[in-house]
Each structure stands twice: as structure tokens, then as C-alpha cells.
Write a structure and sequence with these properties.
Blueprint: E1 4-6, E2 13-15, E3 19-20, H1 34-46, E4 51-53, H2 62-74, E5 79-84, H3 105-119, E6 124-129, H4 140-151, E7 155-161, H5 171-174, E8 181-185, H6 197-204, E9 207-211, H7 234-238, H8 243-260, H9 267-277, E10 283-284, H10 291-303, H11 308-315
Parallel strand pairs: 3-4, 4-5, 5-6, 6-7, 7-8, 8-9, 9-10
Antiparallel strand pairs: 1-2
Helix pairs in contact: 1-10, 3-4, 9-10
Amino acid sequence: MINRRTLGRTGLQISEVGYGAWGLGGNQWRGHVESDALAALRRALELGLNFIDSALAYNEGHSEQLIAQTLRESGAEAYVATKVPPKNRLWPAQPGIGLDDVFPYQYIVECTETSLKNLGVERIDLQQFHVWNQEWVERDEWRRAIEDLKKAGKVRFFGISINDHQPASALSAIRTGLIDTVQVIYNIFDQTPEQELYPLCMERNIGVLARCPLDEGALTGAIKPDSEFDPQEFRAFYFRGERKQMVADRAAALQADLAAAGVSGPLAETALRFTITHPAVSTVIPGMRKIRNVEMNMAVSEKGPLPQAVVDLLRKHAWNKNFYS
């Protein structure tokens, strides 16, 4: 059975392996049949997963609608997190662009109302800002939106989905006391949240959603120099140019070190176990569009954290890059 952890000060008991629903919505992710992806989500719920992370921007609410459909048809119960997209549709947030262009008060409220309708619920378990800029921290609008939506019973908890590879950008927002959770890129290649973000989260009892545990596939060992993607898919951009070769070389070096240390099993398994090893992490949210991936990822919870010697070995494989740019 999948293990559960406390989502920080929210007190929610959530599965330490959750479901990242970006791919479920389709659009930017190709190569799957929607019925297969829905079957994968149902299987995850059967295996004890009870936390799903979505966003209004995931194919303009289609991901949220499919989650609602699956929960309704299966009778399963799960906590669902979603996100308010930036009004200017710029990911990540850009320096110098004011809050009025990204998260004005009424826009936050309207997006929340749309997500409530898509999800078929009266209250969202966890609403999140889909980008963040620490320049906004003293502005009143986002603070008032959080307080008003909670007071109205439309949002239970509020968090920030932190910009790509910028874990320190949410520190000042956490210190306001208004933020219940953060979502951040954390994997073998990007270990930077351990430096400042995780210590503060543990001090303030902030829930942590670790995203991109497999680095969009780079930490599965499946990306090869000749790998091809649909030109319209996100991964065609992410692994463009010489990046496939770079990833293949890094993954091969990582696998060689693990083999020499006697660590067996798929690379993806080790990558997921690395992510849930850190005590600050409440849940890890890989995308899972096939039943076989669900079953493998759910089994990781039973294996537990990695031994410290393996974590120490993985330290040298940290990689300073940003393929999202």
C-alpha cells in the first residue's frame, strides 16, 4: 500500500506519490490515447493514490474536467490541486512585469470559479499561483484574493508553483504566512531546493510538492540521441538540438555509477526514490499516462527512501541547466 505523508500545516494526509496531470490534458503532450491515460489515473486511484495536481492551463481546463469525470465515475476520493494561470500567459514570470498584468484580484477569483466548475466541486483543496515573482510580495491584491477565497469557502489552502529552477524566489512569500504549500522542480539533476527552500519549509511547516522528478523523461534513461517527438509536443522543444545527446550521456554516467555501487532496478525508480527521500517533500507528482508506469511508480513508495550512501553518490550528478528556456 502506498505510504502517506502530511502536507505541511494543512494537515492533509496525502499519498507520497501523487499524480501530475499536465499530460492528462493532452495538447502539449502527445503519444497517448486519452482513454489509456484515464485508465492509468483510475489504476493509480485503485492503488491508493489520493493526490492529483492539475492546472486551469492544462489544455484550457480539459485536465480538470477529466479528473472530475474520473473521480465521479470511479467513486474514488482524492485531494485535487490546481493553479491560476498567469493572465499574460508567460511562463515563467518575467522580472519587471507587474502583478496587474499577471494576477490581478478579479482575475484570480474568476479563474478559481472556472476551476470549481471544471472540477465539479464547491471548494478547491489546494489552489496555486502558476508562476511567481518575488517583486510582488508586498502587493495587496494577491494577499486579499487568498484571504477572500478562503473566507468564502471556495479554496481550502493556497500555494505557489515556483518558476523553473528558481526555488529561492518563493522564500519571501512563505515568510508572509499566507502560503500553505510550494511546488518546485526537484530531482537528481536539480537539487537546489535543498539549499534554502527546504530548510525554510521544514521550519515553517510548509507542504512541498516535488515536480519533474524524472526531468521530463531525462531521468528514465529512455532519451537517446535519435529519439523523436511530435513537433507540436513540449518535449520536442525541451530536448531540441544537442540536448538529447547531453541527456543520454548524463543518464549513462549516472547508470554506470549506480551499477558500480550495486544499485539495481530502473533509473526512473531510483530517481523517484531520491525525490521522496528528503524529509521536506510531502509528495512527488510524476505524470503517468500508462498503467505500467502507474504500477511501477506506486511500487516505489513501498521501497522507501534511498540509503544515505546512494544519496551521497547522486550528489555529484547535480546538473546546472535550464532546458525550459
